[in-house]
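INFO worker-7 received task bundle
INFO bundle size: 2
INFO processing item 0
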Amino acid sequence: MRDRILQSVKDAMKSGNKPRLATLRLVTAAIKDRDLALPAGSVPDTVGESEILSLLQKMVKQRRESITLYKDANRQDLVDQEAFEIAIIEEFLPRQMSDGDLRKAITGVIGELGLSGLKDMGKAMGALKERFTGQMDFAKANGVVKELLK
């Protein structure tokens, strides 16, 4: 993943695509910040693929929230900028699960772990995050898990 992002930075530089390059630099800066936040002497000394996926999802979520605020403020120029950045960041994320696949995955995890009741909500979400990071919208998943564990 890290190599794909760096290659995209190089390609954007070569093509002179400044808006794309700016967004990719934001992504690489966020990854470097996470790397630097690791405790000194930790092995490995860089964050893993799942951490990068989580970071990218967080960046997309932040931009979606910003779009809502910018729409309310009638700032279409900023809405367009955020949407452009989302499109670039999502190039590096795996395809998101459809609602049907999400429900099927959650049902499978609940059945496999033998979960019942809202007291097992944390176990369900932990297992889902471990297995489906980057593929699942965990805000949606949270609602479905609550519904199924009632």
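INFO item 0 finished
INFO processing item 1
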Amino acid sequence: MTVTITEEAVDAPESVELVDEFEHEMQVRYGSGGEPMHPISEMDLVAFLVARVDGRAAGCVALRRHDRELAEVKRMYVRQGFRRLGLGAALLRQLVEVARDSGFQVLRLETGLAQPEAIAMYESEGWQPITGFGQYATSGSQRAYELALG
């Protein structure tokens, strides 16, 4: 098994497919009446990474700029058939390196209670729980995390 993680265009066909699958899974986990996904503007997108297993697109993650020092992890997703291989942690670690190289000092992310495997991964990777932020600041079904890069 050969795993590669590369920066790819967010509008490439396989990238769009991965994001569409992510959004569908979030609708299934949280219900179709849940909070809508907000697009990441091209200006705010720092990087979009795709993990491939033997050349097949298996997962993705995006880095969204908030300001010069703060960025947010978005669209973290690993396809069903590729889970439990460590791809999520590998994507996250690579994204942290991209953020460091881009000069960010702090990363944040949010995830929901219906994603206990994501919560376990973030905590095992050293992310610290924080008070909610952004559109999910008052949501009782979300958890927020932060990682200091400095």
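INFO item 1 finished
INFO post-check item 1: The beta strands are 3-7, 45-53, 56-65, 70-78, 106-112, 128-130, 142-148.
INFO post-check item 1: Helices lie at 13-30, 87-101, 116-124.
INFO worker-7 idle
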